[in-house]
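Input sequence (331 aa), recorded before submission:
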Amino acid sequence: MKKKTNKIFLRRRGKALRFPLTVRFLLVVGIICLGLKLAAVSPLYADYLHITDSGFTTLSTSARAMGMGDAFVAIADDYSACYFNPAGLIQIKQKELGTMWVDLYSLGLSKQSFLSFVEPNAGMGAGGISWSHLSADLEPEKWNYNLFSYSYAQSLFHNKVISSKTLSGSGGINLKYLKQTTDEGNGSGYSLDIGFLIWGTRASAGVNIQDLISQIEWSTGEKESIPTNIKLGTAYRLNPRLLLALDMNASWQDFPKDIRLGSEWWLRRNMALRLGIVKTFQGNDIKASGGLGFYLPIPKKFAGIKALSFDYALSYDSLGNTHRFSLSFIF
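Predicted structure, token format:
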């Protein structure tokens, strides 16, 4: 039974790098100390309603990840890799259709939905398409945002021995098209993300540079770019049941913007408990989150579906509670 259980828990993970304990400790302390030293201005709720403030384009797209405080850059092993780190798509072994829905801060004002379909590597790399939608009804104003993405990942090296460690690495890109419709004017444009991931036996590290290249053109003729968001992360699997992650978001002007700690603990074969905490330096804010995950294999395939995955997350900050629900179909 134990051998079977381990196989379930490792189903989304390849091998990851094993760092010495001292090195891991120094890396964590160094990042946290750097973060505590640097600070900037807190993003407001209204930032989510302006793609040129990088708000909408950096909204989470996964209840699983949100339950871990969105510390997911070095994990990125499901459909949400299309957002967190496209390089992670190379880890996916089966086709997956994922969805998410959320009422931001439970205010009934802004609602976000996400839909993604990803395919595993069949020799030419892994790929995925996704659609993220945000609607806001702020009487008398109404806003609608749509972001369409094509994601692609390719293996850079596999099981390569480097300094006595067996490592694998991948790279990926997101090509994105954005469209905004508001009472004040309309805008549309494009954006590019670039991500990298490296892993070995237990640990992994990743980076995703969001909106590295972008341009938004408004109906007024004005052109703007979206601020670049840099996501850095590392993850470590203590055992087949427990996964820990540390992420940091930054920009060229604000380094860092926040630090995120997350954990995922599989209580049993098909049920996971997740906890996360986010330290935001702009405004000196602390946010907490938690969630549950359920993985349900289907013994007899129904419509080609091998398993269902349902995730729930609750996050809290000064603006209120946010409930997220995700459902994915694995083929």
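Checked by second reader. The two ends are 24 Å apart (CA to CA).
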